[in-house]
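Rotation project, supervised by the postdoc (A.L.). Task for the rotation student: set up a whole-complex structure prediction and record inputs and outputs verbatim in this book. Inputs entered:
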Amino acid sequence: MLEIKNLSTHFPTERGLVKAVNNVSLSLAKGEILGLVGESGCGKSMTLLSILRLVPFPGKIVGGEVTFRGCNLLEKKPAEMRTLRGQDIAMVFQDPMTTLNPVFRVGEQIGESLRIHGAMGKESFRRKYGENRKIAERKRVLELMREVGIPSAEERYLEYPHQFSGGMQQRALIAIALSCNPKLLLADEPTTALDVTIQAQILSLLEQINKEHGTGIILVTHDLGVAAEFCQRIAVMYAGSLVEIGPTDVVIEDPQHPYTIGLLRSIPKITGKKEKIKPIFGNVPDLAGLAGGCPFAPRCDFVEDACYSRDIPMRQITDNHQVRCLNSQGQNV
Amino acid sequence: MRLARILERILVAIPVMLGVAIVVFFFMRLSPGDPVDLMMGEAGSVSPREMEALAREFRLDEPLHMQLYHFLTDLLRGDLGNSFVKRKPVARLVREHLPATIELAFGALIISLVIAIPIGIISAVKQHSILDRVSMAGAFLGISMPAFWMGIVLILVFSVFWHVFPSHGRLPFAVGLKTITGFYTIDSILTGNWSALASTLKHLFLPSLTLGAGTAATVARMTRSSMLEVLRQDYIVLARAKGLTEYAVVVKHALRNALIPTVTIVALQIGTFLGGNMIVETVFGWPGLGRLVVDAIQRRDFPLVQGAVIVYALTFVAANLLADIIYTFVNPKIEL
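Outputs recorded:
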């Protein structure tokens, strides 16, 4: 359904060119959940914003293709892009407290996407919610609020965001994203700002949406555990590049890239024998000063001279498992 | 709920007004210069007996505390007393001059809203553009220029050199407008006197510009900076991700938030527009309350100054209350 090829998004800064998204290629099948994992600032969110072409100034998509249901989004006109946003591709953001507009009522904000895209005039919605658009919109919004688990929707419809708790705000944001029945949901760390019990609820809500509506989801997270639990496939990003992608169990059980191995080793375990957590030494590189070669090389335990000398290509390990590392076995893609 | 709070605020204003009345009473009597002396000086040679009679008429021969007592008891009955100089009830004088001042304040308000807010928005949306630089430089000038100087320069350029706008007054006598409300713009519309309306607006322009320039500049800069702040917020990204046009994002989602600080400032400025326009009214010979008061102060016309200051205090209290009420409407997080 979604096919990203060699997507690159660059930010010119005073310190140099930041390649926030560097030659990223990945795909998403219909109804699939893909986890995009990596540290803060590795380009996960920018990858999502690039799909919607909402990269903030001065960032710019400099190359690649984003094919969504057969069309390259990067070639679409701005107006065509707008009809897609919120209707076919919706996004859930990281920080619900700052993502809802503080001066509008929550019900109004959920209904807005419906209005923009004239959803209530569409045949399927008309049949379900009736002819009168205003009444239909309200019905639909209340239904959405109930679906995402906002209790006493009738009253909360008229409330303002600051009257909602963080978890409820995130539910409202998910309701906004779901309003037009999107085919693709881009979830940018939807649980990072929430406490653990609420996290689980929100994630299972996303899973339920995925099952019931067949919505494809790209779940961006820095938590490999979350990705392991909810995603069919996992893509690991480091310093703007994709370093490993494969089915969840393969990436978890048999990681090939030293960075993925390091990430897995740094997760504390509560079962099995006591092991000391092994952190990845060193710091995330400054993206502005990135030279050629593997960006992970300075922190890598298996580094060789060749790692610094040239850009490392993706290698195919098995059918759907790819790794960007010279040490890995397999064919160059 | 909201109504109860508003009522509470109005009740709190009463002691404030009383305090203002007492302070202005003493300030006028503490300042050097005797109203009888000043009046007699104009009339030429007068006998001491005549002066005594006048002092008695104005109750200036009584002890200070009795004068204050009379002033306050009259005030509580709604009587502002009679002007020493004009020999008319102060209330009537204020009523005659207030429409001109309100009209001018309204003009200044329009200048500082209708012009300044769009400039602020465009400067923010097109940050670093030529338009942004020019308008912010203009705003800097607007803030820095004192009203007496700006007024004179405007008169010089637009009235003396170019003859585009009149320099003085509200309306020439020759136009002959039948006054109903005292607001010339409204009166000219009511009587269908279009030439009077045009002339009124022409007369209004330069004083309004002078009075509103400082606020307009502040509003433009403030709208710009809060707009820049708001445009960086996450909910703006969400608005775009919903598929809104850039216009709707800016005008609906960003502006409503960016205007919260601006609206408060403007509402507070209404008090200044009504009560801080003495200089502008003097420069442009505008027959409003400001000029009336300046005149009254020079002649030590105690009742007129007291009455006018009380009206000023009232407008300030009302403007503050209005600002608070508006604030609760634009910012749902705030309750009165």
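Student's summary: The radius of gyration of chain A is 21 Å.
Supervisor addendum: The longest strand of chain A covers residues 16-28.
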